[in-house]
Amino acid sequence: MGIGMNQTSAKNFFDSRFWLALISGVLCLGLALGCYFLFTSRQSVERRLDNMKSLLGKAETAALQLKKEKELILQEKERIQSETLKYMTRNNDLEKEREDLSSRLKRVDGLIGTNKDEITKIQTDMDAQLKRILTHREKEQKALRLQRQRLLNSVRKHEETIQKERSLYHYDLGVAYAKAGFMRDSMREYEEAIKSDGTNADAHYNLALMYKNVEANYNRAALHFRRYLELRPDAEDAVWVQETINRMYDLDLGSGGRKDQKRRSANDDDKK
């Protein structure tokens, strides 16, 4: 019997602990769910607060924009009112001017009717005066054109003088180089002299001698000799220059003939 009572007590003890544990678990679960819902609702509230702040910011911006637009509209309204007032004032002034002009026109019509001959005379005098003014203006324009042409001619002569002086400078430098034995430099200076002034006969003559004696370029030498004869057909050495051109022409033909003969001989050797 004692054993039965102990078993019953033990069973009741375990049943009470089971229910106690179950109730504790349910309470913990409820507490956890409450914390979860509380945290979730807090985040939702914070998001709503953020959204409300954003909306308030946008509303403030929109309000500022509306305020600026309202100010602009008020300014535009004031401007339109001012322009309207000016227009009305101007319109009144124009109306007064129109009435004044109409009155003056009537007076002029009366004068024209009574003083037609006098007006015709005034018109004739005005036409004559206008004709004199136009004639004087044409003379002034003609004088200005002549003065401009004289100025252009003076400038052109001045430029030609400068070019001739520059050509003489290069020619003298070419002569100095030739005397010092710098033939290439001398030829370059003669070329510059001819570029500055194509009528520099001495530069053509010396450059022809350079091409003939230094370069053995008879074509270029003959070209400058011919130009020298064109510029100085009555030169004392004109006959000698022409004979030199003829000799260089014969020499050029002879060298060309020998070159052609050598070329034909080389071709024959290749064929063999």
Helix content class? over 70%
| Major β-sheet annotation | none
CATH topology of the domain at 159-259: Serine Threonine Protein Phosphatase 5, Tetratricopeptide repeat
* Total number of strands: 0
Low-confidence stretches: 256-272
Level-1 CATH class name of the domain at 159-259: Mainly Alpha
Tell me what portion of residues adopts beta-strand conformation.
under 5%
Question: What is the structural class?
Answer: mainly alpha
| SSE ordering | HHHHHH
Rg calculated over all Cα atoms: 59 Å
Rounded to the nearest angstrom, the distance between the terminal CA atoms is: 150 Å
Dominant shape: flat
Number of H- or I-type helical stretches: 6
Average pLDDT number:
79
